Structures are given as structure tokens and as C-alpha cells.
Amino acid sequence: MPSTPRPGETGAAQVRHGLRAAILHGEYLPGERLVEAQLIERFDASRFTVRAALHSLATEGLVVLEHNRGAQVRKVSLREALEITEVRMVLEGLIAARAAERVTDRQASELAEIGVLMRHAVEAEEHFRYSDLNHRLHSLLREIAAHETADQIVETLRGQLVRHQFMLSVLPGRPQVSLPQHERIIAAVRARDPKAAESAMREHIASVFEALRTLDYLSGPA
Amino acid sequence: MPSTPRPGETGAAQVRHGLRAAILHGEYLPGERLVEAQLIERFDASRFTVRAALHSLATEGLVVLEHNRGAQVRKVSLREALEITEVRMVLEGLIAARAAERVTDRQASELAEIGVLMRHAVEAEEHFRYSDLNHRLHSLLREIAAHETADQIVETLRGQLVRHQFMLSVLPGRPQVSLPQHERIIAAVRARDPKAAESAMREHIASVFEALRTLDYLSGPA
DNA sequence: CTCCAGCAGATTGTCAACAATCTCGTCAGC
DNA sequence: GCTGACGAGATTGTTGACAATCTGCTGGAG
Predict the structure, then answer these.
(1) Closest nucleotide (CA of A37 to C1')?
(2) ipTM value greater than 0.85
(3) Is pLDDT above 80 for A7?
(4) Distance, CA of B120 to C1' of C18, in Å
(5) Contact B150/A87 with Cβ under 8 angstroms?
(6) For B122-163, how does the pLDDT look when each residue is reduced to its tens digit (9 = 90+)?
(7) What are the CA-CA distances from residue B15 to residues A16, A137, B61, B66, B172 (Å)?
(8) Domains (ranges, CATH) in chain B?
(9) B55 contact partners, CB below 8 Å, separation of at least 6
């Protein structure tokens, strides 16, 4: 599946999106070399196009380029993952605050609905469903906040974290911890209280931060 | 001055730095087209190299690329400038908090020194000197915090703001407003009080935010 | 006088070939 | 048996030429 070819897009953007998706899906692991010839075959693109995509992803921080040694998927150390999570904490805090200022009645009930579904998912122990709702919640908040700059940075950072976040979602007991946090965020935004929304979001991500740090001891200093 | 040629660097990075510096210095104005042929001559580089640099700066947000229409310096609207300032507010808040946790005695006295020099500069109405010290203060805080992720994002955003910040520094009365704010930040970091440092920094940049917004009415909706 | 089609010049997008560099296996010397 | 130099193969860096597209001008029709 060489990614749906979008007619409106130039080849470079197609390859970039495809490769980005592949890395995010874990098809290429951190540290793995991205050989141009392979990518040319996979995406049926020219070397020029592949090269442009690699450079672009390098600036985005998803791959690293070394002179005369080509590209490889960037390894994100746990220290970096923690830094990224800290940055996400303050940025999503900003987003939550703005969402509380701008939320419409319609959006407020959408939030409420997600909250209810989340509780059901946790009670039924449907972890995948809960993880999906989690994503929808953060996504909806960003949509409500309509803060392009913060939005784009958060999205970029999320890309760099995929592997670590995957590990997190496996941690048992997490949903029970995060559900009330999510509910507090939803309540604060619905109450149109920016400060409460920001601090609820920050506490939530701070708890993710701690969980990530704990994970370090579990997996050891690889 | 085609930028000092660094021997250790590949051509692409040289052109990128040079062009970046040129844009930041205002040699190319927002909206101005960056014609490849001109850049080839200016930096004495190949088209390939110039192209890579443009793509890189595009991902960084300093230029925009349109298909078959080449590159131009990105115009940052006031709305975007305000968004960027908000993001800087929370990120530099995080940096200030971390700086308060990690500051050494030696760094603390460096901060104190900058504070004294700032006061002198304001009293002597040496605006340029104050602006320089301002830069040094924020820079030192980032060094103390040693938060690579936040640091890099802030630096990138600062680049996108150059034009607007230039306008700000011209505003009369600003130093009198910002001096006490700076002093509070320094005091909080020296007291090793993360929360106080964060809120002092946030208040400072929130005030910059308001000043920027005011500027809108002065210059009109161009 | 105004508007639209068509053309020439300029500019960018793409490609294929060549040059430089690195990696890794091999072999001679100690 | 071990160390280090050598070289073939693989991979990336760079260049120049060619194709596609856009922009602004010219000229004719209404």
C-alpha cells in the first residue's frame, strides 16, 4: 500500500507523508537506516523526491541525517522523551485554557459525550477504545482552542514520542489514574474556567511524566 | 559578507545559516521572493544546495514554498505573532522554573550582575544596551535550564518574530515597564523558587503580549 | 477603450549520470 | 593468532541538463 496518491500534491509531499506514516506506525524502528534505494522502490519515486522528503523529516526531528552516512530514524532517549512531555504539558495547558475561553455549547456537549464514553470504556476494560477516546479528546480540545502555532508544535512532538507513548498505554492501572484527570479537564472547559482547565491539563500530563519516568526503571538503562 | 565559511560544514548548512541570518537581519523582507538564481550567486553555491536550504527553512517556518512559484519570506501576521508570543510565554515559563531548580551559585551571581546592568541601562536611557542585556538574560536562563527541547522551539519561534519584536523595542516607556518584571524573574530564580520564577516570567511575556496587541491599533490593519 | 488569447522570457520541478565517501571483508606482515 | 592496510562493493553527495509551469507583455477583437 504505497499510500493513496493524492492528485493535488507534488510527489515530494506524498513521499514525506508516506514515510512519516511508516515511521509513526513503527515499520521503521529508531536507529534503523533509511536507505534511499529502498525508499525509491517502496514509494516508486525518484531519488530527488526521496531526498527532499528525508531532509524535510530531518528538520521535523523524525530522522537524523549524517554526512555521507545517510538517514536513520531518530532515537529518542528517555531523557528527551521526558523533555518533550514537559513541553507538551505547558503547551496543552495553554490549549486547554484557550479551549475553555472559546468552547461553544455544541462543542461542550461533544466533550461531555467523550467523557461518558471514556468512563464506559474504562469500566468495560476496553483499553484500545479508551486510548482512542483519549486521542479524540486531546484532538477536540486543540480544535476548540484553534491555536495553530501550539497545535502544530504539539503534533510534531507527538510524532517524536510514538514509541514511548505506546509503551505507556500498556501500563496496567493507567486508565484508572487518568480517567478522573480527564473528567476534571472536561468539567473545567465546560465550565469555561481557563485557569482550572490549564491546571487540570497540566496535572494530567505531569502524571504522564511521572509514569514515563517510572517506566525507565522497569525497562532499565538500555 | 557571505558569512564565515566553516570548514567542518557541508555546503547546505552554510547556505542555510547564511540565508537564515540574512532574513533575520531584515535583508529580505516578508513576502519578498527568494529567487534561486540570486541565492546561487550570493552564496556561491550550487542550485542543489540552495534548494536544500530553502526546504529546510520552509520546515522551520521562516520561508514558504509554493509549487511552481518558488520560495518567499514568510509573512507573519499579527495574529500569528500573538500566538507565537503565547507559546513563548508558557515555554519560557517552563524554562524559568527549571532554571530556578538548577541554577548554580556562579550562575546566580551572573544573573544578579545582568540585573544591575539592566537598571543602569534603563536609568541612562541606553535602549540598545538594555535590549542587548534583555537578550542575554533570556539566553542565560535557557542555558541554566538546559532544556534542549524547549530551547530549540523557543529559538525557532524567536526567528519568526524578528520583525514584530523590532517594532516593540521602539515603543517608548517599555523599559520602565519591563525592568521590574525582569528583576522579579531574576530574584525568583536566585531564590530557587520554580513556581515564582515561572509566574514572573509568564507575567513578563503576558505584558509583551499586550504591548504587541496594542501595536496593532497603532499601525492599523495593514 | 477594455478585455482576453497567445507568446516569449524567466523560474522552478525533475531526472539521470558522475564523483566522493564510507563499510566491510580479505590478506599480508608481525 | 592478531593487527592493520588495502580494495571492492555499496551508499550518498553533487552537478548539469531538460521538462513543466508561471508571469507579464503584446496585439487583436469587440
Answers:
(1) D11
(2) yes
(3) no
(4) 62
(5) yes
(6) 999 998 899 999 999 999 999 999 999 999 999 999 999 887
(7) 23, 42, 16, 20, 37
(8) 11-73 (1.10.10.10), 78-219 (1.20.120.530)
(9) A52, A55, A56, A59, B65
